[in-house]
């Protein structure tokens, strides 16, 4: 197996390209939101760390169980918020395969009552929540012949009760968007460890959620593949050993396109991921690389690394899920087939490792992989990186505004209301507008307010035929 780089040492020399080299088709930053991805130069002989103003990270560059950490003799009780979604169903696959390791005490779903009813019959939770209150009668009818009838609570309060169920030790947060914030906060206040699959918990809520987690001595365990890879790599590191985080990215639909061709992008083009078949929103985020920019912000909050110490690396094969560099220049990587079940499993079993069958969990055969290649991302092709780093450095409510504006812009693009290149412009204009109202230490209400504001403001932006954004 060969590890190929575009030129010697490239992985250690990924740098911010001068924004003055951007072609006219990217007319960003006309005196507006200050784009700044990487500082000039890097301090020598220091560990990756947060600034003094940042909230305390979930894992400050190392991970180790505390003395007296409980080891479960029987099945660990868990609850799942978002049980009918991708994260929820994969979590339940893990529970089904490991009934001696995990048991479900509570489930919450949105509106898929047919699947929720099947899950109730299989896993027999004590409590079930359906967010859509109009569907509770349908759920009760589907469970009419069920011998084990759980308590059913509806609406947002029902989801919150599932998150803080008294018997649950770990809560899997699989709800998408800011709808997952209140249940996560409720779980933290109830002392539950968080298996984190909801991005907004840290991207929007980091300044509020992290101090709360420290107050209640709650562990936030990352369930997405990149941050799980970093988390696995920092196991056992001594204090101050982390030097740099390397986030790998597939590069998305346009990794092989010349930048000049991006003005011709259609929705169908952006939805053709070279590696996977995913939902529309995440596929577009992969094409723009906004998904990776948001993961940079998450990595900052999770592991306490300054933005100068977090790099993005294009890795088309998606076998190395991320890497860390230590003070002595060693690079540690986590490899595996792309399978979300592995990081989910580790959030449930940490610090233990659970044996997995070769039938349902194919093992990685390095000799059959072929080459693993890496290259620096092009910030001309991916202006999202500059926007994400700038929002991260601004901190406070800016990162949540970035995420919400991007989500709305992607929706507008998929609905063919704006062009592909306008996604970046809509996000930049929204972030720029927010600068005058930025809240450095937001409350939960502030976070939710500016999430809604960003979506509304982004939706108010229209673009002219020459791709120069103007307000409606």
UniProtKB/TrEMBL annotation:
GO MF annotation: an example: isomerase activity
Protein name in the entry: 1-deoxy-D-xylulose-5-phosphate reductoisomerase
Organism: Macleaya cordata
Domain 1-deoxy-D-xylulose 5-phosphate reductoisomerase N-terminal: 78-206
Any single Pfam family the record assigns to this protein: DXP_reductoisom
PANTHER family: 1-DEOXY-D-XYLULOSE 5-PHOSPHATE REDUCTOISOMERASE, 1-DEOXY-D-XYLULOSE 5-PHOSPHATE REDUCTOISOMERASE, CHLOROPLASTIC
Catalytic activity reported: 2-C-methyl-D-erythritol 4-phosphate + NADP(+) = 1-deoxy-D-xylulose 5-phosphate + NADPH + H(+)
Gene Ontology annotations of biological process type: isopentenyl diphosphate biosynthetic process, methylerythritol 4-phosphate pathway involved in terpenoid biosynthetic process
Main location (coarse class): plastid
Family note: Belongs to the DXR family.
Subcellular compartments: Plastid, Chloroplast
Cofactor(s), by name: Mn(2+); Mg(2+)
Domain DXP reductoisomerase C-terminal: 335-457
């Amino acid at each position: 197996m060969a590890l190929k780089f575009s030129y010697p040492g490239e992985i250690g020399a990924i740098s911010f390209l001068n924004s003055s080299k951007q072609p006219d088709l990217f007319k960003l930053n006309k005196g507006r939101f200050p784009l700044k991805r990487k500082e000039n130069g890097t301090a020598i002989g220091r560990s990756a760390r947060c600034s003094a103003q940042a909230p305390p990270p979930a894992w400050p560059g190392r991970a180790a169980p505390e003395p007296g950490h409980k080891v479960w003799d029987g099945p660990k009780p868990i609850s799942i918020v978002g049980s009918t979604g991708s994260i929820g169903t994969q979590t339940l696959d893990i529970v089904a395969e490991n009934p001696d390791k995990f048991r479900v005490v509570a489930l919450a779903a949105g509106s898929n009552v047919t699947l929720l009813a099947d899950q109730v019959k299989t896993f027999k939770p004590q409590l079930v929540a359906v967010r859509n209150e109009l569907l509770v009668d349908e759920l009760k009818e589907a469970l009419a012949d069920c011998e084990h009838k759980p308590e059913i609570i509806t609406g947002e309060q029902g989801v919150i009760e599932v998150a803080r169920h008294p018997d649950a030790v770990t809560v899997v947060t699989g709800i998408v968007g800011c709808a997952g914030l209140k249940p996560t906060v409720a779980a933290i206040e109830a002392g539950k460890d968080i298996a984190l699959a909801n991005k907004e918990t840290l991207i929007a809520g980091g300044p509020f959620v992290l101090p709360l987690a420290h107050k209640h001595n709650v562990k936030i365990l990352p369930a997405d593949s990149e941050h799980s890879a970093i988390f696995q790599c920092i196991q056992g590191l001594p204090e101050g050993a982390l030097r740099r985080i390397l986030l790998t990215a597939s590069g998305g639909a346009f990794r092989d396109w010349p930048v000049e061709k991006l003005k011709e992008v259609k929705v169908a083009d952006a939805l053709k991921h070279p590696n996977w078949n995913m939902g529309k929103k995440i596929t577009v985020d992969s094409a723009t690389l906004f998904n990776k920019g948001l993961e940079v912000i998450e990595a900052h909050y999770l592991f306490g690394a300054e933005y100068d110490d977090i790099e993005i690396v294009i890795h088309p094969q998606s076998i190395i899920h991320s890497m860390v560099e230590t003070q002595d220049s060693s690079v540690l990587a986590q490899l595996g087939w792309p399978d979300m079940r592995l990081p989910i499993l580790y959030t449930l079993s940490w610090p233990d490792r659970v044996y997995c069958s070769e039938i349902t969990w194919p093992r990685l055969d390095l000799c059959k992989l072929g080459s693993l290649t890496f290259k620096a991302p092009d910030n001309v092709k991916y202006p999202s990186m500059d926007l994400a780093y700038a929002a991260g450095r601004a901190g406070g409510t800016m990162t949540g505004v970035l995420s919400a504006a991007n989500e709305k812009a992607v929706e507008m693009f998929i609905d063919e209301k704006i062009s592909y290149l306008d996604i970046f412009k809509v996000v930049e204009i929204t972030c720029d507008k927010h600068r005058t109202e930025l809240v450095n230490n937001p409350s939960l209400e502030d976070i939710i307010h500016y999430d809604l504001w960003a979506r509304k403001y982004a939706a108010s932006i229209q673009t002219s035929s020459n791709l120069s954004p103007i307000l409606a």
